[in-house]
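Re-run requested by the PI after the first attempt was lost when the workstation crashed. Everything re-entered from the original request form. Ligand of interest: pyridoxal-5'-phosphate.
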Amino acid sequence: MTIDFKRKVHEMSNQQIPLIDLIAQNQVIGDQLIEASKRVILSAQYIMGNEVKAFESEFGAYVGVEHAISVANGTDALVIALKALGVGEGDEVITTPFTFFATAESISFVGAKPVFVDVEKDSFNMDPQKIEAAITPKTKAIMPVHLFGLACDMDAIMGIARAHGLFVIEDACQAVGGLYKGKKLGTMGDVACFSFFPTKNLGAAGDGGMIVTNRDEIATVCRALRTHGSGENGKKAYNYLHQIEEVVEADLSTDNTVYNPLKYYNYLVGHNSRLDEIQAAMLRVKLTYLDQWNTKRREIAEGYTQGLKEIDVITPFENAFASHVYHMYILQSEAKDALIEHLKLNGIATGVYYPIPLHLQKVYGGLGHAIGDFPNAEYLSKRTFAIPMYPELTQEQQQYVIDTIKGFGETNE
Ligand SMILES: Cc1ncc(COP(=O)(O)O)c(C=O)c1O
């Protein structure tokens, strides 16, 4: 059977340039993805098999960490990481209000309180200068977010964290392959979390996530928590948490399709949060392309930034310490809504990330925040929007986006 990865005509009808084009990606690697999925189907091993093991080891090597623990999605990665660090009821975690909801949600989910500090107007990332004033005796951790693929100032954040005995959980969900002073994002905090949501720069064909750490005990607890706190890892985690010295025998069973009694011995209350084999097999294919895709994203970003120089939009900032992976390419405009409408009329998709900063979300009404508390996050949420960014974006498409934006500037002069 040959598979036609071409876009169906009706799908093209009213949007010529999408924000992210996974069909264009399929046209390049679709056959390999089908092969990888087929391999899993033929093996009939769907959960925690060889593909997951191999992907964890390849991803760990790519990021440069001791332990990579795959989970069902990026949100679970954050929740499990927080639990593994012992963050819970009565604790506070400092984070940014300008991010996807899951960042703060994970903190709330474990029973802790998200404490927001404002972002920098240029980088959109947590302002390290504002962290110390937010620390209280209840603060247990800092959760910086490398937003849109741009590194936070990790030396500054780690310096504050270490001075105050706080953990750092890097939310690297939008930043696989991004760099800080040449170091991979995800290698500097105590733990880091990634998302493989399909539109991410390393995206699965469904949900997926990863926790990485260099700390053996934290990795053991994460491994235990992702599968009901059971089996070898559950026992090891229990022993670590209760300071019991005991050699735990290795669980050599690899085949999850047969009865494994260790599965039914539980030591912690955990989750069912596993990456499945088909996702792992496809992610293994995509990981081999990631560096070349990230390079392409940077080239496209450079093309936009040059092409949009002379006009009345602000293009993204990149700190000297960072290598941005442009999960999203974000513009700022005073006339955001009209410009978005102009692009839509011309068949160009846009996205608004994020229209309401987290301190003003209804769900966080109980935190008692008001408009004006985090002026930079509020300012950015009104002005920022994403334009098409994906490695397969052609030069012609990019030029069309640039010309269309310029056209708006001219009609508004
Ligand atoms: C910054 C950030 N944190 C957390 C998440 C949660 O990841 P997921 O959607 O895989 O649960 C996402 C992704 O959507 C994200 O962008």
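Saved to the shared folder this time. The chain has two domains: 9-23+290-411, 29-117+124-285.
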